[in-house]
Amino acid sequence: MRPIYLPPWRIDVHREPGVPRLVPDAVLARAVAAALAAGGAAGPASLALTLTDDRALAGLNARHMGKTGPTDVLSFPLLPPEAFAHPARRPLSSTSPEPPVFHLPPGARQSLGDVVVSVERAVEQAEGGRGGQTGDVRWSPADELLLLATHGTLHVCGWEHAEPADEVAMRALEQELLAGVGR
Fold first, then answer.
1. Is the pTM above the cut of 0.90?
2. For residue 37, is it within any domain?
């Protein structure tokens, strides 16, 4: 694991053995940090990004999502969506309880969760012209990997795309963030 500090964030990048190095860790960390900021995450905080293969994602997908086969990215948030402030967030109703407040010791860093990406799936989707989360984008495997890391991070921050309006907002934000990631 390689911790990369981009204040107020620490991004812990872990590459499983044998996983291709499509994008430098520092570039991945910048993409994740930008998504954390856009997603309304409060700092200081950390997020773990694991780069692995289809086999690992298939196991996680079965265990945590009840689905068969690999997927491209899974997110495991540790905080409720209400802990993040961003414009797409619908206001809590007057009957909704306030989100819990966790007080950490001085200098401690809140862990926001984990994002796990199948680099194998990113390569396959990009090379097959099935990238871009919409399944119709043809671009490099590196671009697909950056998108998946960004997408997973936004999910950690409470962003969803089940409703059409939410999907449009999330896709637009992803494209804006990816345009700002320098290599």
1. no
2. yes
SS3 labels along the chain: CEEEEECCEEEEEEECCCCCCCCCHHHHHHHHHHHHHHCCCCCCEEEEEEEECHHHHHHHHHHHHCCCCCCCEEEEECCCHHHCCCCCCCCCCCCCCCCCCCCCCCCCCEEEEEEEEEHHHHHHHHHCCCECCCCCECCCHHHHHHHHHHHHHHHHCCCCCCCHHHHHHHHHHHHHHHHHCCC
- Our measurement of the distance from residue 109's CA atom to the centroid of its chain's CA atoms, rounded to an integer in Å, reads 18
pLDDT digits 0-9 by tens, 14-63: 999 999 999 999 999 999 999 999 999 988 999 999 999 999 999 999 99
Give the pLDDT confidence of 47-56 residue by residue, as tens digits.
Answer: 999 999 999 9
Query: What does the buried/exposed string (b/e) look like for 81-105 if buried means 16 or more CB atoms within 10 Å of the residue's CB?
Result: bebbebebeeeeeeeeeeeeeeeee
> Total domain count for the chain?
1
What's at 169, amino acid-wise? A
CATH of the domain at 147: 3.40.390.30
Range of the domain at 19: 2-80+108-180
Q: Tokens 């059409």 identify what position?
A: 164
